[in-house]
Amino acid sequence: MNKRHYYLASCLALLFSTASYAEVDCELQPVIEANLSLNQNQLASNGGYISSQLGIRNESCETVKFKYWLSIKGPEGIYFPAKAVVGVDTAQQESDALTDGRMLNVTRGFWVPEYMADGKYTVSLQVVAENGKVFKANQEFVKGVDLNSLPELNGLTIDIKNQFGINSVESTGGFVPFTVDLNNGREGEANVEFWMTAVGPDGLIIPVNAREKWVIASGDTYSKVRGINFDKSYPAGEYTINAQVVDIVSGERVEQSMTVVKK
């Protein structure tokens, strides 16, 4: 069996010529650990510059080949790259930076121009190993809004949450509920349409909540709980739970997304 041994001798142990070893089953180790941090999470409406720190650690017991990139998803369907696809063969790293147990650190910055929409942006470090396994790390920042503010449609506040913070389910499946709260802070009633879907591996788009039209009186809040049952037959991978609310009168739309992983 492929195993890695760590030498854990302490000063006292050396005096007595004794040592201990911790044995790790390499086949149970993840191949790569990905980390991402941003130097700031808040930008004004006129945009600005963000510096990101990428950390990619080789957690396997041997050298690995992988590709990585940095992408950004924003409001109104904005997607743009922050770092192009880079291929790495850890056996050929001159600094031996990614031999087993070592980390590659990369600093990458990007501009967010004024013309891009205000709202929440997700920065995603994605790493694909030679064996096809995918490893990710995400961070969020906002432009022109408060980091903790809720999305709204002209005074209609939308608050959709993973009710119990269930971010993953086992391979046998499981149920994940979500709470939906729409508060109408307008002077008049709000006419909206709402729906939820789960976008998963292999192009799956699973209905979570059918399209519903709601009329919410001024000052009222519409609330409901809706969930998705991850059947054991669903493929393993990442599922993006996407909720969308459309103002029927103006045609404006907002959305919220949450991620659940099926093992």
Automatic annotation (TrEMBL):
RbmA-like FnIII domain sequence ranges: 33-144, 158-263
Domain of life from the UniProt record: Bacteria
Keywords: Signal
InterPro entries (UniProt xref): RbmA-like_FnIII (IPR054171)
Leader peptide range in chain numbering: 1-22
Official protein name in the record: RbmA-like FnIII domain-containing protein
Natural source organism: Vibrio cholerae
